[in-house]
Amino acid sequence: SPTKAVYNARHWNQPESEALPAPPALKTPSVPVRLSSKEAIHKDDGVFKAPAPPPKVIKTVTIPTQPYQEIVTALKCRKEDKELYTVVQHVKHFNDVVEFGENQEFTDDIEYLLSGLKSNQPLNTRCLSVVISVLLTQLIFSSVISLATKCAMPSFRMHLRAHGMVAMVFKTLDDSQHHQNLSLCTAALMYILSRDRLNMDLDRASLDLMIRLLELEQDASSAKLLNEKDMNKIKEKIRRLCETVHNKHLDLENITTGHLAMETLLSLTSKRAGDWFKEELRLLGGLDHIVDKVKECVDHLSSDENEEKLVASLWGAERCLRVLESVTVHNPENQSYLIAYKDSQLIVSSAKALQHCEELIQRYNRAEDSICLPDNKSVPHQNVTNHVGKAVEDCMRAIIGVLLNLTNDNEWGSTKTGEQDGLIGTAMNCVLQVPKFLPQEQRFDIRVLGLGLLINLVEYSARNRHCLVNMETSCSFDSLCTGEGDGSLKITGQIDAVQALVQLFLECERAAQLAESQTDELIKEAPTAQHDKSGEWQETSGEIQWVSTEKSDSTEEKDKKEEDDEELDLNKALQHAGKHMEDCIVASYTALLLGCLCQESPINVTTVREYLPEGDFSIMTEMLKKFLSFMNLTCAVGTTGQKSISRVIEYLEHC
Questions:
Q1: Which of 79, 346, 497, 568 has most Cβ atoms within 10 angstroms of its Cβ?
Q2: Percent of the chain residues topping a pLDDT of 70
Q3: Alpha carbon separation from 282 to 45, 171, 207, 290, 598 (Å, rounded)
Q4: Distance CA 398, CA 443 (A)
Q5: Rounded mean pLDDT of 219-231?
Q6: Closest to 432 (Cα-Cα) out of 509, 533, 500, 348
Q7: Where are the alpha helices (DSSP H) in 408-439?
Q8: What's the mean per-residue pLDDT of the chain?
């Protein structure tokens, strides 16, 4: 082995040799000293010693005793033949040491902050610790406190979640609702953590604390006991802090504990917090606050004349309804609880909100083109209030989404919803009239949502079926604009709801057939593969080679035009296919709605048969069978929707 250099360890705090003071020079008579060559070679500078002679290495060979073993050769050295030295095992890599240091620094910060959050600490210390915790969880926040500059690391929030510190912090702040300043700081910490796209990492205790902060009332008696100057300082720090994160829906002028806690709750969904969130939110009373918030926002819709306040109310209701929609999907317990809460307050508020949105969408329509009306007038398009129309559309979709969950396979929910004044008529307008006030790409969604709500309402409720059959309404807006076709599509004024639905079905079924035939023609007219004209084979020197020909400008333009034509044909085929799919789905939903109306009612069967061509239900059953086959390919087999379609098909085939 090579000669090892031995390092004489020195104390780390010993100054460098350059910094040591020079010893006093002694004046001695200079006597020339002559060193031998051997002494000069072995002269030592006091730091390194001369390398020791190489150890005596013994080579050993182990002969295998079994056929499957191999010869093993080893080099060994006896201890007597080598100097003593220290062997350090398991030395960490440089990157491991750096990572360990960073983690230790994060851990020290958390332990320091948690020690300041304990209940035995003074209130000011606890509030300061919470504020610093909020600052540490930011990606970049160096303008508030100098400590934030040191601790504002992008990896801090990830470290906080990875080590399960979030629940520990909120557990330490369990009594924060008893102090106004501390509760405000805790709500701000929750809000900042909820800004991430990652999971909130909440547990039941943290959610319970959030609900308790939501219930706080800012009464005057407690405010008098606090130092207003200190409170304003904390609010200003939180306000500047919230300006650095995504705060689209946060009112920075209304920094209160309840407002921050509500915004945090509305940003949560069962997808982010886990399936347990659905049940715990109901048991801890969180659903009560969200429903009350919906009622508050809906009440403002009828009184707010200012567009900004109107948009704020629409956004508030829409966000609350999105959370309710998330927690009621496939959860019968939450559905029943919301139906019964305060005598169906959510259903009442949703019905009122949907009616308000129907009125507002006509005033703030976002239709991209003029719509033909019976009196040959066009619908005005207001670009100034475009954002209001967008808020109305989002709110309408959220309302119908919640009502769909509450009425799906639920006779009680269907009956309670159908009892609301004008709700069935509003749902019919969402199918027939409201789409004309929406952009072209949004019309299909609102129409399908309205048809789905009507199907849920009439499937298990005889009262709702009777109400819908006896209702009068207008024809579909696109039927009125049709210049060609059957004369029955040009009926103006009020007609029976069943007749309007049958006309919608027939029109969508014809449009689907037309789109299918046009797509087939485009496929048949696809250009055939042409021979390669970029060159030709030529025989030169007894070899055959491909010689490319130079293209003229006209040839290149022609090739480019052909490529553009092919791309255009492909886009046309895709557009026809998309239109065909939309028409098929609308026709299938309408046929399913008419089939639900016919169930257990021979009178309704006769009424629907009068408006069908030749009184034949086969056109409806064929469309439903195609739709059922499509669902079997795309959905799980055995769902309630497939069972309902199969039941309607079987009933119509025996009519």
A1: 346
A2: 65
A3: 80, 21, 11, 11, 38
A4: 15
A5: 54
A6: 500
A7: 411-418, 423-432
A8: 75
Instruction: Break the chain into its structural domains and give their ranges.
Output: 100-131+138-273, 281-369+380-479, 508-525+563-654
**Domain covering 281-369+380-479 assigned CATH 1.25.10.10 in the classification:** yes
- What confidence score (pLDDT) does residue 480 get? 47
Burial bucket for residue 217 (CB in 10 Å: 0-12, 13-18, 19+): exposed
Per residue in 298-328, is it b (16+ CB within 10 Å) or e — as a string? bebbeebeeeeebbbbbbbbbbbbbbbbbbb
Dist CA 256 CA 261 (whole Å): 9
d(CA 462, CA 601): 9
| Mean pLDDT, residues 489-510 taken together | 82
Task: Decide which of 407 and 523 is more confident.
Answer: 407
**Helix H or strand E segment including 60:** strand 57-62
How far, in Å, are 348, 358, 425 from residue 422 at the CA level? 11, 12, 5
Which residues in 522-559 are b (16+ Cβ under 10 Å) and which e? Answer: beeeeeeeeeeeeeeeeeeeeeeeeeeeeeeeeeeeee
**Nearest-5° angle of CA 435, CA 437, CA 443?**
30
Work out the number of other CB atoms within 10 angstroms of the CB of residue 428.
Answer: 23
Residue 585 confidence class, pLDDT cut points 50, 70, 90? very high
Q: Distance between CA atoms of 294 and 262, rounded to whole angstroms?
A: 12
The arithmetic mean of pLDDT across residues 509-534, rounded, is: 67
Residue 571 tokens read as 């886009």
